[in-house]
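To: structure subgroup
Subject: Chain for Friday's discussion

All,

I'm putting the inputs and outputs inline so they're searchable in the archive.
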Amino acid sequence: MLIRVENLSHTYIPGTPLARAALRDISLEIAPGERVGLAGRTGSGKSTLVQHIAGLLIPAAGRVLLDGIPAHARTARARAARLRIGLAFQHPEDQIFEQTVFREIAFGPRNLGLDKAEIAARVEWAINMVGLPSAMASRSPFTLSGGETRRVALASILAMRPQVLILDEPTAGLDPGGRRELIAHLRDWQCKTGSTLLMVSHSPDELACIVERVIVLDDGQLAADGRASDVLSNVALMSAAGLDVPQSVRLLCALRRSGWAVRTNLLLPEEALDEIIRARREAA
């Protein structure tokens, strides 16, 4: 699915003293199969933008097109386009309501009118994709840990087989091991399906592990849009937007200031290690 955002603006509580411009003339395009990160400080407009892409909000100005169809239109074609987008909100417990994990994950496919065999197959596939044991299907989702609840919420969206998956801070509240495992499962899902992934995160290290392109918002405006290696390693740009750079970039920049001949646009720890070893050998 081709996503096109054209001159999009949004104001909360318009016409009142509490009016606040959340988005200001945003234009961008996301091609099918891209892995895109959306970064920005709290209040920069990230969640507002993804809700527009999912067709949940009506623009104050501009528009969002899903394969050329206005995302917020009240037509059968627009509804069909919106159903191809899966959006996981930041607090997954707000999305949980069924009595068992199986019923929770099956809710979407069941509403699509699929038969029982297909629903069961999708539930099993989605549970495996998020790294949960099959035996968990019979448990109540309200007895799960925070990390398990987050995975169930994600599985319920994956079971719909979305063409576009939007995740709003998907690892919030998880321990480091849980974050790494969930990111690995998301990469595996995206590689196997070729679907589009749009991930909202304030963590540059998480984005570095999974996305190939990063969009930065600042005060509702588009501050940057480019390759992850270029955007996330730009210390001045990220600092101006109230964001950190990945730890590997901070280390390489410190070494560069100390006289090491190293590149500073390497985002992953293993890339940074290889670069440090190379520089050390060449200096020997």
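Points worth raising on Friday:
Residues 129 and 188 are 8 Å apart (CA to CA).
The chain has eleven helices and ten strands.

D.
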